[in-house]
Amino acid sequence: MYGVVILMLIVAFLLILMGFILLSLGGEREVRGGGVLIIGPLPIIFGTDQRVAKGLIILALVLTIVTFIIFMMGWLR
Questions:
Q1: Nearest-CA neighbor of 56 among 22, 31, 40, 48?
Q2: What count of Cα atoms within 13 Å lies in the side-chain half-sphere of residue 28?
Q3: Per-residue pLDDT at 17
Q4: Between 20 and 30 A from 3 (CA), which of 11, 30, 31, 34?
Q5: Contacts from 13-22 at CB under 8 Å and sequence distance 24+?
Q6: Is 25 in contact with 17 (CB distance < 8 Å)?
Q7: Structure confidence at residue 2 (pLDDT)
Q8: Is the pLDDT of residue 10 over 90?
Q9: Residues near 4 by Cβ (< 8 Å), separated by ≥ 6?
Q10: Collapsed DSSP state (helix, strand, coil) of residue 34
């Protein structure tokens, strides 16, 4: 169970690191961003434009479903 959590943390760290590297290698570009804050079952989504917000909505749904599945796997044991 803890292995999955550690793996998810490592993947998240590597994705953030890859993003910083790609931004630093690129030239002058417009930076867009946003975030998802999940408090209980409610996601709070913010972004710089509508395209980013739509992507974050999909990400929030996927993360919620994955979290629910992991929770149910532990509950059924």
A1: 48
A2: 0
A3: 93
A4: 34
A5: none
A6: no
A7: 80
A8: yes
A9: 70
A10: strand
pTM of the model: 0.55
Calculate mean pLDDT across residues 46-62.
87
Please give the structure tokens belonging to residue 48: 């710089």
| Cα within 13 Å of Cα(64), Cβ side | 15
Give the CA distances from residue 7 to residues 17, 51, 58, in Å, rounded to whole numbers and listed in that order: 15, 28, 21
Pair 36, 43: CB distance under 8 Å: yes
- Residue from 7, 15, 17, 57 nearest 35 by CA: 57
Question: What is the domain partition of the chain in residue ranges?
Answer: 2-75
Both tokens of 74, joined, read 């532990």
For the chain, the first-to-last Cα distance in angstroms comes to 12
Please state, in angstroms and rounded to a whole number, the distance separating the CA atoms of residues 74 and 23: 39
Query: Where does residue 40 fall: left (phi above 0), alpha (psi -120 to 50 degrees), or beta otherwise?
Result: left
